[in-house]
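Data availability excerpt. The first of two example chains:
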Amino acid sequence: MNHIELRPVDEDDLDAIFEMMRDREAIAMAAFTAEDPDDRAAFDAWVARELASPGVLSFVVTENGGFAGTAASFTVDGDREVTYWIARHAWGRGVATQALRLLVSREPIRPLFARAAAHNAASIAVLTKVGFTEVSRNVDYAPGVGREIEEIVFTLPPALDGI
């Protein structure tokens, strides 16, 4: 089995993250992405804001020590959310599931929320494996596919023991 870890993002990771987030197949799956994934200046400004925000926990996902993606938690409108983006070379091997489990274990706030495009079966499977359940659906414009699509909102409620 592959060894999956989360570690803080550093400057040396930015090129790999930028290239990963430009993968057209991944963009189509994620759907809710940057307006222009090829705009490096916009990417750099976004990363700088995220890394400087005290409410954002940003990590690089590693597989056997090598770059495999990103994972983060952040607050939107008072709700704590998680997100992840796994590089295509790491798809299909449980990297996203293990990375999300690690992220959830580091995030004490419950409930946690996550979102996935309704057509992204792989991400939906990851979320449900980790214990997230669907709470709502909405339709919104998704830059990654250039049209409105259905988005599913998931939650991970507090456990009965309070954790």
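And the second chain:
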Amino acid sequence: MENTTTDILLWQQIKKGDITAFEKLYDIYSDGLLTFALQYTTEPSIAKDAIHDVFLDIYKYRTGLAESVNVKSYLFKITQRNVLKKNKTSQKIFHLNTDYSKLTPKEASFEETLIEEENNLELNAKLAFAMQELTENQRKALFYRFNEDKPYEEIASILGISIESCRTLIYRCLKELRKKL
């Protein structure tokens, strides 16, 4: 997939904050992205939400976007990632009844819920403490990778480092956090 001249121009204009260019890019790709997204989910609402999130992130982080990117490839890749992530979060945990004829949602008791919350609070406190010991660059890299779900290429571009260095940085951060937890 190669960039078209239109894609390149629109991308550059979006980086400058041009709303019209943003709308044009959405108009060009939204239908194709929806068709593509529906290959990964049976829920049209999940597909549409994933696509809207892609475009919201593009607009929200437009100043940090990479200069040269294959726009079409980027849009499809991020849409796929968003759909799969949204599908995963929308799934419920099931267990089998004793008669094995129906699937029902598993309901946790109050005690189980309380214990789980306490464990989560303790783990979050440990994680917060461990995160404070990381450098600012390490924290940024982890934030972009896991909170913003950005690809290594984009994180490397934002941080001004090579892709290999970005992968190594994130790997070492995770290794250090695991050791402390």
